[in-house]
Amino acid sequence: MSKWWSGKSKGNPLGYKIFVWCLDVFGLRFTYLILAMVVSYFWVFAPKVFISQYRYFNQRLHKNPFSSVFWVFRNYFSFGQVILDKIAMLSGRGGKLKFEFDGEEHLQTMVNNGKGGILLGAHIGNWAVAGQLLKRINVKVNVVMLDGEVEKIQSVINQQTIEQPFNIIPLKDDLSHVIMIKEALRNNEFVCIHGDRSLSESNTAEVLFMDATAHFPLGPHILAGKFNAPVSFVFAMKSTLSTYHFYASAPQSFKLPRQADAKNNVLMLSLNRYVSALESTLLKYPHQWYNYYNFWNR
């Protein structure tokens, strides 16, 4: 099994539309029950994904073999709930979801300082909910994502008579997204980027994460240093059946030195801060880890 993300995620526009129909007919909580049957199928008939998550619970979190099997099911079910909540929020059907905030003042400070900022998240919790919640700050939000993911999200939004909660910056090979990110920061906007996935070993660094080495992309940290943009680590975690807890760290800014060794030291300091925040959050919500491939080096 590859230790690199393929750049593709499960799911398709039709699946999103079916879930929207279920939400309309049955409501969010009853759709969770329907979800349990779907989850049971993947729990049994998706061995590659099962192995990666089993190793996470057994080797990284030190669960015993028997309980690790059921933690995988809990992880699948949690992921399904997050997808449903995301669809509910994007389609204007998330009225019953509640939200708690921890560090919202840090984001307001970033806006008040007039420099925008980079919000560095991960494939844990629910990034779509985080983007929706940032409307409270009264600032334009941009989400950087791969073209394939753009199509899926846009298909949901286009079918609904609601305002798009965030602007999408497509991640492309021609690096046009860098120009768009620079412009957004110049306009005092937020740019949301995931900092935990890489398509290859290039432009990554190996760090200790959950007691084992793993590669993390340096790209988001390079962008932050290049544009001298404040960086806040943000995670929106599902704390109860209907509640999300939004976390935002105090922003930090840095410039990249020209000298290679000094530049690398600054980047590694930023990366290690991010990895530490990610690990602390995962220890609180261990079942909300949604990287379904061999993440750790072996």
From TrEMBL:
A Pfam family hit: Lip_A_acyltrans
Domain of life: Bacteria
UniProt-annotated location(s): Cell inner membrane
The organism's taxonomic lineage, starting at the top: Bacteria, Pseudomonadati, Bacteroidota, Cytophagia, Cytophagales
Organism of origin: Persicobacter psychrovividus
Residues annotated as transmembrane: 21-46
Protein name, as recorded: Lipid A biosynthesis acyltransferase
InterPro entries documented for this protein: LipA_acyltrans
Assigned keywords, A-Z: Acyltransferase, Cell inner membrane, Cell membrane, Membrane, Plasmid, Transferase, Transmembrane, Transmembrane helix
Major site of localization recorded for this protein: membrane
GO terms of molecular function: acyltransferase activity
CDD domains listed in its UniProt record: LPLAT_LABLAT-like
